[in-house]
Design a protein that fits this description.
The chain is α+β, with helices and mostly antiparallel strands. The protein has two domains: about 140 residues, Lipocalin, CATH 2.40.128; about 120 residues, no CATH class. It is about 30% helix and about 25% strand. The protein is built from six helices and ten strands; from the N terminus they run ααβαβββββββαββαα. The strands form two sheets. The chain has an eight-stranded antiparallel β-barrel with strand order 1-2-3-4-5-6-7-8. α4 crosses α5 and α4 packs antiparallel against α6.
């Protein structure tokens, strides 16, 4: 089996977005039109000046791995949820200003709350292009973010549904085998829904590093990594002992996983089906 080590990037860049500057043509930008779930599918900067080279290495490239694949859920009330692929969701607020600027406020673990202004430079056909400025002593760096709306339906669930995110709540005490099975089932069901969203919305990349489960992703199947206590996903359990018990349960379920769906051209959908099969087995 050939491992999937890198993002599957095949971008048909959204030229329609470029032709719709600030909503001047096509669909008008309103708060209602931005409400919903959006995935950042590309982060880029167009500068090629030599003074930007160090900044690209120290600032932009590290940001790409963290930000590409992150999902925002803009709520009608002006609140937001952000899933950066970690164990917890980040809360914040958003505001559309003059139909030209998106103001986003949230707090990460390393900084205090701050509001980041993004200029809306393109919006069309469920695609959104934002730009903000990274200030530097010499010159400012203009960073562009391309986002795709995540549509959902009865078969492809909203990834921010509370019932899909119960696994993020760390237990306050050791769990029984039945409780560990339920937690594993919730985790696998969430990532089945994640890959279903990727497939349904025709997003042509995914970052397997954002999957908080000891899985290996191949072009023709799934595998299981060895158990490592220090891995981030073990923090989902009360302690390392429970995490190891859960790993053994998951490993036993993998033994019973037989056939990988024959969907060469729809790899994300095949992952979704396989993960749901594992969840059902628990």
């Amino acid at each position: 089996m050939k491992p999937v080590y890198l993002f599957v990037f095949v971008f048909a860049f959204l030229s329609a977005c470029q032709s719709n500057k600030n909503g001047e043509a096509g669909i008008p930008i309103t708060k209602d039109s931005l409400t919903g779930n959006w995935m950042i599918i590309k982060l880029s900067t167009t500068s090629s000046k030599k003074e930007y080279e160090n900044m690209m290495k120290s600032v932009v490239n590290p940001m790409k791995n963290k930000i590409e694949g992150a999902i925002y859920s803009f709520q009608p009330s002006g609140t937001l949820l952000l899933d950066e692929g970690g164990l917890t969701l980040t809360n914040g607020n958003w505001q559309l200003k003059d139909n030209k600027q998106l103001l986003i406020q949230h707090q990460d673990s390393t900084s205090s709350p701050r509001t980041i202004p993004f200029s809306i430079t393109g919006y069309r056909n469920d695609s959104l292009v934002l730009e903000n400025i990274f200030e530097n002593k010499k010159e400012n760096l203009h960073i562009t973010y391309t986002l795709k709306r995540l549509k959902y339906n009865y078969a492809v669930p909203d990834l921010f549904l509370p019932v899909l995110n119960k696994w993020r709540q760390k237990p306050l005490q050791p769990e029984s085998e039945a409780a560990l099975r339920l937690r594993l089932k919730q985790i696998l069901s969430y990532y089945s829904a994640y890959f279903a969203n990727i497939s349904h919305n025709k997003i042509l990349f995914f970052n397997t590093e954002k999957v908080q489960c000891p899985l290996m992703f191949y072009s023709d199947g799934l595998g299981l990594r060895p158990f490592i206590i220090s891995e981030e996903w073990t923090k989902l359990f009360f302690d390392n002992r429970d995490a190891e018990k859960a790993y053994i349960i998951l490993k036993q379920s993998f033994v019973r996983l037989k056939d990988f769906p024959d969907r060469e051209k729809k790899l994300a959908l095949a992952f979704s089906i396989s993960l749901e099969t594992l969840a059902d087995d628990l």
